[in-house]
Automatic annotation (TrEMBL):
This is Deoxyribodipyrimidine photo-lyase. PANTHER family: CRYPTOCHROME (PTHR11455), CRYPTOCHROME CIRCADIAN CLOCK 5 ISOFORM X1 (PTHR11455:SF9). It comes from Rhizobium grahamii. GO terms for biological process: photoreactive repair; response to light stimulus. Its EC number is 4.1.99.3. It catalyses: cyclobutadipyrimidine (in DNA) = 2 pyrimidine residues (in DNA). InterPro entries: Crypto/Photolyase_FAD-like_sf (IPR036134), Crypto/Photolyase_N_sf (IPR036155), Cryptochr/Photolyase_FAD-bd (IPR005101), Cryptochrome/DNA_photolyase_1 (IPR002081), DNA_photolyase_1_CS_C (IPR018394), DNA_photolyase_N (IPR006050), Rossmann-like_a/b/a_fold (IPR014729). FAD binds at Y224, T236, S237, M238, L239, S240, F270, D370, A371, D372. One of its GO terms (molecular function) is DNA binding. Belongs to the DNA photolyase family. The record marks W304, W357, W380 as: Electron transfer via tryptophanyl radical. Binds 1 FAD per subunit. Keywords: Chromophore, FAD, Flavoprotein, Lyase. Residues 1-130 form the Photolyase/cryptochrome alpha/beta domain.
């Protein structure tokens, strides 16, 4: 009888424990992907990630085809899809790799019981993280709330399990009925095709993920510890979209950075970033309300502004602060933003515009190719100061100084805000201070070809600190 391998956030053959178990069972394999409806507490995938999902599924299907099989696509509630497929195929076992977002966990727990009641064997495996989130706990058995002790615990836990190679042969079962067509899911944008530049940056598929990792080890990892903060430098791995849908496993990344001759400080720092991803999942797993509730309930009384004109200026990259605008436009064009700039734009939304972090989280969820329920929520709360182990609210990034420090030559700004590209380095991060003659020479008419700042940063900062002391004192 066949065995069903249900692919979810693990769209790869490499280091795939569920697939490996299916192959070693000796049963013919049915490879399945289900497009599940948005369920309570989760929202549907964002538009940018749907684009990535489409291409990632297409690539997975090609890899399966190369081994003589195919990916069976179906949409609906998992229990309904599986029930139909179990009866049509006479399969008696379903395997999958675990997911750790709370709504996903709830679905899987119910499903396992349902299947077992029907006499179907249901088995799940680890794979999305280096360590199971239930494994790393404090001495008193509680979850970590602070990153540094979490990292130490991760180090003490020893090396994560070594990745397993992709199977070279799979015996597939034939499934009657062809399943659904990927194109019928309409995951790609049509008019306008706002994703037209995505394909220049993102190459889907697990082979592309491995290539990107190798390129990063060869050319980016050396110097990572210092260079990773400079958005114009190609110094980070850009592996997050691959990790988010599981085109590569963190264990594979960990393994490949083992035994290289690169400086230990760079390798450790890179692994510490992977550990931020783990920590975010640890928080989400233990505190399921992370994506929508202030971790620190002192912030429940915070007086956020509605600010729809300000929110619009932020989303479209028209705030008048070049580093903010460059980041928000990189997001439009590439479905991605450099980490340093994510912190700057998030701080600007929350503290300069006093707009609720949840609106920013939602915008990112819809526009990032790497949108991730754990990392996105944890990072937004971190910047807001409302999260576990958060950066304090009173740390307000100055967008001009951040730009000057981390984009000193203005290359990043010039790439994404071309209308001010002709400004010299002195004013590239502060066009509003440039003398009229300088602006004129650079072809800039402030308030017309490029906006004047929508808020005065110094005044906005004072206002934010006042709003913060109101909730602080009330606590
Ligand atoms: P690298 O520097 O090469 O890091 C390697 C990997 O470590 C990344 O691919 C990522 O998986 C992980 N990582 C790195 N930094 C972090 C971090 N701060 N938190 C968690 N994991 C991290 N990351 C997402 O994957 N999805 C999100 O939706 C997301 N939203 C964010 C929202 C805000 C407001 C902020 C400040 C950060 C967010 N991040 C998110 C974290 C981080 O910005 C990205 O993971 C990183 O920019 C991805 O680029 P990279 O792969 O080149 O990173």
């Amino acid at each position: 009888k066949p065995i069903i391998v249900w692919f979810r956030k693990d769209l790869r053959l490499d280091d795939n424990h569920a697939l490996q178990a299916a192959c070693s069972s000796g049963k013919p394999v049915i490879a399945l992907y289900i497009r599940e409806p948005a369920s309570d507490g989760t929202s549907a995938l964002g538009a940018a990630q749907e684009w990535w999902l489409h291409h990632s599924l297409d690539e997975l299907n090609k890899s399966l085809k190369a081994l003589g099989g195919q990916l069976h696509l179906a949409s609906g509630r998992a229990i309904d899809v599986l029930s139909d497929l179990l009866s049509a195929s006479l399969a008696d076992t379903v395997v999958w790799n675990r997911r750790y977002d709370p709504p996903g966990i709830a679905i899987d727990e119910r499903l396992k019981l349902d299947l077992q009641e029907r006499g179907v064997e249901a088995r799940s495996f680890a794979g999305q993280l280096l360590h199971e989130p239930s494994r790393l706990l404090t001495g008193s058995g509680t979850p970590y709330r602070v990153y540094t002790p979490f990292w130490r615990a991760l180090e003490r836990a020893g090396e994560p399990p070594r990745p397993i190679d992709a199977p070279t042969k799979i015996q597939f079962a034939s499934v009657s009925g062809t399943g659904e067509e990927l194109s019928s899911w309409n995951l790609l944008p049509t008019k306008p095709n706002w994703a037209r530049e995505f394909a220049d940056i993102w190459h889907p598929g697990e082979d592309a993920a491995r290539e990107r990792l190798q390129d990063f080890i060869d050319d980016g990892l050396k110097g990572y510890k210092t260079d990773r903060d400079f958005p114009a430098k190609p110094s980070t791995s850009m592996l997050s979209p691959y990790l988010t849908l599981g085109l590569i496993s963190p264990a594979r990344i960990w393994e490949e950075t083992r035994g290289t001759r690169l400086p230990v400080a760079d390798i450790v720092h890179f692994r510490k970033e992977l550990a931020w991803r783990e920590f975010s999942y640890h928080l989400l797993y233990h505190f399921p309300k992370l994506p929508y509730e202030n971790w620190n309930d002192r912030f429940d009384g915070f007086e956020w502004h509605n600010g729809s004109a300000h929110f619009h200026a932020w989303t479209t990259g028209m705030t008048g602060y070049p580093i903010v605008d460059a980041g928000m436009r990189q997001l439009w064009r590439h479905g991605f933003m450099h980490n340093r700039v994510r912190m700057v734009v998030a701080s600007f939304l929350i503290k300069d515009l006093l707009i609720d972090w949840r609106r920013g989280e939602k915008w990112f969820r819809d526009t990032l190719v790497d949108a991730d329920p754990a990392s996105n929520a944890a990072s937004w709360q971190w910047v807001a100061g409302s999260g576990a182990d958060a950066s304090p609210f009173f740390r307000v990034f100055n967008p001009v100084l951040q730009g000057e420090k981390f984009d000193p030559d203005g290359d990043y700004v010039r790439e994404f805000v071309p209308e001010i590209a002709a400004l010299g380095d002195k004013y590239i991060h502060r066009p509003f201070e440039a003398p009229a003659g300088v602006l004129e020479k650079a072809g800039i008419e402030l308030g017309n070809t490029y906006p004047k700042p929508i808020v005065d940063h110094a005044a906005a900062r004072d206002k934010a600190l006042k709003a913060y002391s109101a909730v602080k004192d009330a606590a």
